[in-house]
Amino acid sequence: MEPVLKIVDVEKSFGDFRAVTGVNLEIVRGEFLAIMGSSGSGKSTLLRMIAGLEAPTKGDILLNGRSTRGLAPHERDTPMVWQSLALFPFLNVVENVEFGLKMRGVSAAERRRRALSWLERLEIGRFADRAIDELSGGQRQRVALARALVTEPPVLLLDEPLSALDAHLSVRMQAVLTNLQRELGITFIYVTHSHSEAFAMADRVVIMSEGRIEQIGAPKEIYLRPSTRFVAEFLGSNNIFTGRPEKGADGGGYLRTGDGLLKLPADADPALFDGEVDLIVSADRIVLGGPSQANSLPCRLIGEEFVGASVNLYLETEGGRDLVVQMPQRQLDGLSLQRGAAIAASWSDADGHVIRATS
Amino acid sequence: MLSVTNRSPGAVLSATAVSRGTVPRFARLIYPLAWATPMAAWQTLFFVVPLGFLIVLTFWKVENYRLVAALDPVNWIAVYGTPYFWSVYLRTCAMAAGAAALISLIAFPCAYFLAFHLDKGARRLAVLLLITPFFTSYLVRVYTWQAFLGDNGLINAALQGAGREPVAMLNTVFGTFVGYATLCLPLVVLLQFMSLVNIDRSLIEAARNLRCPPWRTVWAVIVPSARVGLVLGATFAFILTFGDFVSPTYLGGGNPPTLGILITDFTKAGNQWPRAAVVAVTMVTTLILVAFFAVRFAYKTRRRSHG
Asked: Is the pLDDT confidence value at A301 over 50?
């Protein structure tokens, strides 16, 4: 499929600082793409370059196959939803939504009609005559969305639009966004630092760090097979064992660690076996006190942290390393664990994922 | 971690609760009053009281060039009954309004440039330079203009040197307006700049993003966002020029007169302090009304559209 947006070797420097470097990315029509990274990773700069608010130092961004080099922001069709929303405080709700249409020379009656129909669609029609400062955070969010979508653009850019909302409202707006995106079939490029937003909504996730793309993939793929140590750590709920792999008596790969030998998954790339590797095991793949599996480490419980319906357990192995195990709340109740209690943590070798260790 | 952050606001709350319990009520009242008193005393002594006296004075009479205390509306009738007074009044209003509009228009590109096209260091220098005109007395700066604008002044000497006819600039309305600009322009630029520089840049970016060309953002976003500063700048220009005596006299030649000149005429001719007071009270009232409506317009709550 022809990409709506093609980012070719884009680099952006501010003085000596390289905000974005060597970024290549193709985004197809109707895709919901999330760009994720911590602050300073270059994700917002990349989005601003797509909108034309920053010019790339090198490379090009193609919109519908055409170069955008030299195109000013107002010459592109890339409306954006700002983190601060950037609604015009001197205009009321419907005038804010009409703004983009007015700039395109749409007649007053026509733009009022279209703006009102978008407000209706986002269920805020009754606030059309309100001032912006008379609205709640969630209502403003919808005004910002309506203002960006009223011109029915091929691409919508969103810069952390939900970060100012509380958790409950954020989840509701996520549903609004995904439904809209599916109904309209337009491309959403969504910048966020939140895993839950990115993984819940996106078809594809781009993880950025220090101006580079670390990994691109479907949420599940990134979650199951992080391609770099950075991604594994960034996702937050991974255990990473580093060591030198060796062949076992059974012909399988093993990793020598401070806690003894750990069995590597059978599908691990043999090409990696000549150097140090990281074995990544997701916290929710580890079982406590269950029937013994290929890898089993005796541990001591140090602490626990409740994350909604699930719980993160922090353990220490006999070798002295930390281990995180995630399990549903109900399962923990069945275990009746005391702090300091000894218990075996085990996982199937197939649940491990091996990458080359970064020195 | 969570419990710590939860505790601290509680601790602050209980601390204020303690202070409320122990500090006597009157002491809590006296503290802000102590700060407010000097200002209130100053205003009472040097504004309210003289204004009251000015109003009283309008009802006094002049007999044989001497002021006599009275309660006679004769001065009001005499001044307001003269078409001449109203023509001077309207002219002064028109000149002040014209000056406010003209100076605002001249100031805006300058303030815009300072706010949007200079980096922080250059901006600071520009603000400093905008303050420097206030180092010299306005009167001195007006006298300097005489040397430039006079029939044999620097400008006309240069014109004649170039073989051109001299142009009358001193003792004209043009001269007065040069003086008005000298009085107000730096202040208006400063006020406009302050409000322009504080505009949320993402609003301008959002407008560009919604296909607003750069030149159009000025009217669509920047002017409405900076409305308070722009209106206050124009208001200051109106207030300062409306009551100005120096420029109309020394650069405008006092002819046609403004209200300030009319006041001196009344005091000089026949010692008519009460009639001068009538003019003064009219001026103060006008300025209070202008300031009131200007501030109301500047801070007007966002309109609702109906349609």
From this structure: yes
